[in-house]
DNA sequence: CAGTGGTCTAGACCACGCT
DNA sequence: GCGTGGTCTAGACCACTGG
């Protein structure tokens, strides 16, 4: 007699709603029926409905909030062009590559910068070829687009290179050709490592990341003319707001 | 006389366990106490503990399974070098760039290939500059490492280019310099777009992706000497198994 | 203030993996 | 068979948002 549907009750509810979203019956921004109503309609308890909604939220399809109800999540992503060196400035000057890229897409960028001197984490020390008792200058940037926090971008420089230079200025400095080049250390090679993972609690709160949103941890190591590492930049990139872009040309 | 801890009960349980993991008291592979035991220890109900464990699972910290108990998740990632063109073969020949990269890291790669002719999805049509009534040849590959499914990599070619060539062979073909070059269409430029998101239900089941694991959708478009697109490759990359790597050299 | 989602409990039964 | 996690219910109260 049973219908022999192997899916759990909550999974059927989730599948129903997911199908409505994929089909376009529910569009970005549309409100979802209240939990109690969904429970009545499917003949299940409210907790079961909540499990279904939880699942869809984890898939990045829904947003929720106390008192506000649930809505279908929208995603428009900003393109982040990563294959241009700082030395290949396409713009007049002034702003850095990131700001220019954002402005090109009709959005309004700005960044907050703080500078500190610290001991390197193992991850940074390894990439800069430093010991634990060496020091690094850390430039921590929070990058905003249209006044929403968009990225955490922390740059690490060996203290021996950064001491007494522009790099110690706790503000948004930029010079044509790149800061490192301007102080005598041009970068000739870059290695990017991209890791995909869920955000830590701290990252979630700093960036206002919704549940069900993964991040990319983008680690860029820059090397100088003598082949030694000059800089490590670690950027935390919320997945729902970005597309990372690389353009590669045959030589 | 409340303790005035603003955190919910489940959040305290989660924070406790997360701290144990970060501190190293619980290492990869270690079992977590059973739900009932955690409930008793913290003086909360089993459902509350389950909510905490659910959260940590979504953060990618735990694995679970019926009857098996829960364990701390480990993560060793394979490096995937993406900045080398097919024309820049470093290896004797035979295998493709991906297989070589995997073998270099002491692992054992293989791939299953199927070929079909189909109408392009809008995403593919846009990048190949095709209309909806044009046809594409699709090479679908499931890539395995040590017999575990690792990536879904689908390549799309305009039917006009692929017809009657090696590209129609439903097996793991590879030639020095790349297949496209061997049939008269060398790629001179590549554009990669990387999107970070949660997997669809289908991707999760095909790749055996655990809850709380994001994916990268890597879209590589290859252009020929006349500047026209030749190929789109869409790869679904489980985040817990990969690090994407790009090396960029100054010109 | 009404309605929403968020938290929490107590208890039940089921499905799976192991020994 | 026993212990584990997975599913599900019914009911309660709280916290926030909006009219």
Automatic annotation (TrEMBL), chains A, B:
Top-level taxon in the UniProt lineage: Bacteria
Span of domain HTH gntR-type: 7-75
Coiled-coil residue windows: none
SUPFAM superfamilies per record: Chorismate lyase-like, Winged helix' DNA-binding domain
SMART domains xrefs: HTH_GNTR, UTRA
UniProt keywords, alphabetically: DNA-binding, Transcription, Transcription regulation
Region (Disordered): 25-45
Name of one Pfam family that matches: UTRA
Listed InterPro entries: Bact_HTH_transcr_reg, Chorismate_lyase_/UTRA_dom_sf, Tscrpt_reg_HTH_GntR, UTRA, WH-like_DNA-bd_sf, WH_DNA-bd_sf
Protein name: GntR family transcriptional regulator
Gene source species: Streptosporangium jomthongense
Source species taxonomy: Bacteria, Bacillati, Actinomycetota, Actinomycetes, Streptosporangiales
């Amino acid at each position: 007699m049973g219908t022999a549907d192997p899916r759990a009750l909550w999974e059927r509810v989730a599948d129903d709603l997911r199908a409505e979203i994929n089909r376009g019956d529910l569009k970005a921004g549309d409100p979802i029926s209240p939990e109690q109503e969904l429970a009545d309609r499917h003949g299940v308890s409210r907790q079961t409905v909540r499990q279904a909604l939880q699942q869809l939220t984890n898939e990045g399809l829904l947003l929720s909030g106390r008192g506000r109800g649930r809505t279908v999540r929208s995603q428009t992503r900003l393109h982040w062009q990563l294959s241009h060196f700082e030395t290949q400035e396409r713009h007049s000057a002034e702003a850095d590559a990131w700001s220019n890229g954002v402005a090109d897409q009709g959005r309004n960028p700005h960044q907050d910068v703080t500078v500190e001197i610290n001991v390197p984490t193992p991850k940074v020390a390894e990439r800069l070829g430093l010991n634990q008792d060496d020091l690094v200058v850390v430039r921590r940037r929070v990058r905003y687009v249209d006044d929403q926090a968009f990225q955490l971008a922390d740059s690490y420089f060996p203290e021996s290179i950064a001491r007494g230079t522009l790099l110690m200025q706790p503000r948004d400095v930029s010079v044509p050709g790149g800061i490192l080049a301007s102080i005598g250390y041009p970068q000739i090679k870059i290695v990017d490592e991209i890791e995909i993972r869920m955000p830590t609690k701290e990252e979630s709160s700093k960036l206002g990341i919704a549940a069900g949103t993964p991040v990319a941890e983008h680690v860029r190591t820059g090397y100088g003319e003598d082949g030694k590492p000059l800089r490590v930049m670690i950027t935390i990139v919320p997945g729902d707001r970005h597309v990372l872009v690389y353009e590669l040309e045959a030589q």
